[in-house]
Amino acid sequence: MSKATTDAGKTMNYNDNIASIQNLISGYKGTWDGINAESVARMRAQNRFHSGLDIARYTAKIMRQDMAAYDADPANYTQSLGCWHGFIGQQKMISIKKHFGSTKGRYLYLSGWMVAALRSDFGPLPDQSMHEKTSVPALIEELYTFLKQADARELGLLFKDLDEARAAGDEAREKDIMDKIDNFETHVVPIIADIDAGFGNAEATYLLAKKMIEAGACALQIENQVSDEKQCGHQDGKVTVPHEDFLAKVRACRYAFLELGVEDGVIVTRTDSLGAGLTKQIAFSKEPGDIGDQYNSFLDCEEVSAADLAPNDVVITRDGKLMRPKRLPSNLFQFKPGTGEDRCVLDCITSLQHGADLLWIETEKPHVEQIAGMVDRIREVIPNAKLVYNNSPSFNWTLNFRQQIFDAWEAAGKDVSAYDRAKLMSVEYDDTDLAAEADEKIRTFQKDGAKRAGIFHHLITLPTYHTAALSTDNLAKRYFGEEAMLGYVKQVQRQEIRQGIACVKHQNMAGSDIGDDHKEYFAGEAALKASGKDNTMNQFEDTSNPSVQAAE
């Protein structure tokens, strides 16, 4: 809860805070009498978090509590959506509070894919760690700036209601509003932030991790790909690194958290081994069975003799035999086909044994039993292992789940002759029993995955990339077509008004009322305010007021 406060970790109720500030002002023998104690209390309540580290410490504790709640009951899984701009993250959390009354269990996800595609000075880039690494902490800071502004805006509306209740002498309403102020829930929530493969060596990872944590990140997600060969998890050509190389970067992240005093910081280790058939290096091994030897055991090798060797061949020994790993013209080494799941399991166990808190297994399809099969094996060694899972837009969810139902029906001996498995995406199947059952499986995927496959956190990496494109396409089609201005009014503004979308009063959302409050604090009756009778925002009903929404 976010009560009126002077420190992000210590809360004080609104009236006590006013009294404390008034006592401070009184100590300055009249020189501070132009300062209003209640105005200061309001500004403090509206600015609970004074730094990104305040946010990181606060949200890390929330995330740890949520992880413990999930361990007690997998129905307590958490969710997030990837947001590529502060405004998108802000509107998401405002919507969650409006519709569900609480932000509990809902996070933000920062997608490296969307940073590359939308936030790089180079312009749109593929997800290959080519964007500026500084753009990642910059987006974290931006997201939290907008979430803090959402707090300030909503509290400002409550303060306005409080003043109106006092002016009307309505003590019951005044008490009700005071309770809302004292028990105000912040829009600031945990963020899981993508640090890719660390953007360099372990030192580079540490330096970037510090910047991300200082910006507010309580959870860092790092993957086991080669930093300079990094690919999107759903693209071909992924190359992994030996475990010791990866674990050095995991430790670098932990050192960054501990140096900055974020002792509850969360590290999410992602394995791309399921779809990665290549490695850049042969792992160093001291003795048979160590982690380097286990990594090398997956290399695709052929037995050779000394006479078979070319001048630049690399060889290893396996069970007393001389083996030559398959080496590609790219100078990469190839893993044996069909070893992806075994490598994923080893990656996950090793990461958890060396400081990781959560796992991320990047898969090629959303299939609960495939994920569960790997998690079952991991939990034989680490019983409370749990995942962050990417409900990726790179999956064709409709086709995947229709094919899963088709296969289940066929295995059960049910007649599937009316369906063409390869064409199940077709609209002609939309009203069929198979499509309805598939849609129900999509609807329950997160709940089923949390219960069966150890998925603590479900996220969608780049949904707001797609929603921005879809909504813009629909608006452009209508506005530049026959509907013209009606295309905007009917499909956007009218819907905003009727659905109570707060930013229909966009001046208020952008902070004009907050600015007016400050002008009044600073200049009193001389303040030139923007929210007077001639402000055109007055044409809209006050659907942006949280107390009005609650009453509705």
UniProtKB/TrEMBL annotation:
This is Isocitrate lyase. InterPro entries: ICL/PEPM (IPR039556), Isocitrate_lyase (IPR006254), Pyrv/PenolPyrv_kinase-like_dom (IPR015813), Pyrv_kinase-like_dom_sf (IPR040442). Keywords: Lyase, Magnesium, Metal-binding. Pfam families: ICL. Residues 533-552 are annotated as: Disordered. It catalyses: D-threo-isocitrate = glyoxylate + succinate. One of its GO terms (molecular function) is isocitrate lyase activity. The active site is at C232 (proton acceptor). Can also use Mn(2+) ion. Mg(2+) binds at D194. GO terms for biological process: carboxylic acid metabolic process. Its cofactor is Mg(2+).
